[in-house]
Amino acid sequence: MERKALALLAGVLVLAGSVVADYTVAPLVGGLSSADAQPGQSVIVDLSVSSDASPPDACTSAIFTVSFSQPGLQYDAYAWAAPFTNAGQDDWASPASAALPESVSATTWIDPMSDPGSDDIYFENFVTGQDTSFSEGILLSLDITIPGDFPDGQVLISVVPDTFDSGMGSIGAAGQTLTLNVSSEAELPGDADGSGFVGQGDLDIILDNWGQSVPPAQEIADLDDSGFIGQGDLDIVLDHWGQSAE
Questions:
Q1: Cβ atoms 229, 209 nearer than 8 A
Q2: Of the candidates 158, 119, 133, 129, which has an alpha carbon nearest to the alpha carbon of residue 62?
Q3: CA distance 97 to 85
Q4: Gap between the Cα atoms of 167 and 221, Å rounded
Q5: pTM reported for the whole predicted model
Q6: Contacts of 98 (CB under 8 A, 6+ apart)
Q7: Best-predicted range by mean pLDDT among 36-45, 89-98, 183-192?
């Protein structure tokens, strides 16, 4: 917690006359703020940062949480964008990378300064190299799996900023929310990745799990519900190739 306190102090000591614009941090799947997913499916949630400054703001430290509207999703891994480093001395994420995967719950991260009952995970990282900073784009990517027994419904995944700092003063930041629509029924035959379109992503899932039984193969690859990933699943994808749910 000493590193967090230092970063918070740095955020208060804004140089007189300096002007800093806001960051917006948005959790996205495939560039969208709403995504469909099935139990057994893995999704990548990208935390995309944009700045309203010209030129864009640049930060050397980032502290925030990612909050889930309900427990139970499996948190598999994360990856920071350069120049932030992963699992190094400046990466203070909790749970740490070495502790993953872990189910998200009220005990995954307990913030002593706020609600101890929140289902959230914590991120804190610093850039230590000179003349190095992060500006805009994907700051962090999270690998999330929807367990096979996860109930249908919406899960809201929200970014809650604490401190973004430029090294000379704090950058105001606002977080946005991703809506993850979980449904055990595929809306479109062959749509293994839940994108609403049957194409290369679905074929990749079948091929990645080819010749395996469920488990260890992903349930979403078992399109014919045979318990085995093979020709029957491939045929479903090919029969509906190029189709969309709309």
A1: yes
A2: 133
A3: 12
A4: 47
A5: 0.70
A6: 87
A7: 89-98
Edge-to-edge strands of the sheet including 102-103?
102-103, 74-80, 137-145, 42-51, 23-28, 173-175
Longest dimension (CA), the chain: 67
Contact 68, 219 (CB under 8 A): no
Q: Which of 143, 142, 141, 147 is nearest to 73 (CA)?
A: 147
Domains of the chain (ranges plus CATH)? 2-182 (2.60.40.680), 186-246 (1.10.1330.10)
Give how far Cα 44 sits from Cα of 3, 29, 123, Å. Answer: 28, 6, 17
The predicted pLDDT at position 19 comes to 40
Among all chains, which residue has been given the structure tokens 């992503």? 201
The residues, ordered by sequence, that sit 6+ positions from 47 with a Cβ below 8 Å of its Cβ are 25, 26, 27, 28, 66, 138, 139, 140, 141, 142, 159
Task: For residue 224, give both structure tokens.
Answer: 């014919």
147-195 pLDDT per residue, tens: 989 999 999 999 999 999 998 899 999 999 999 989 887 567 888 887 7
DSSP characters for 131-157? Answer: T--B-SEEEEEEEEE--TTPPSEEEEE
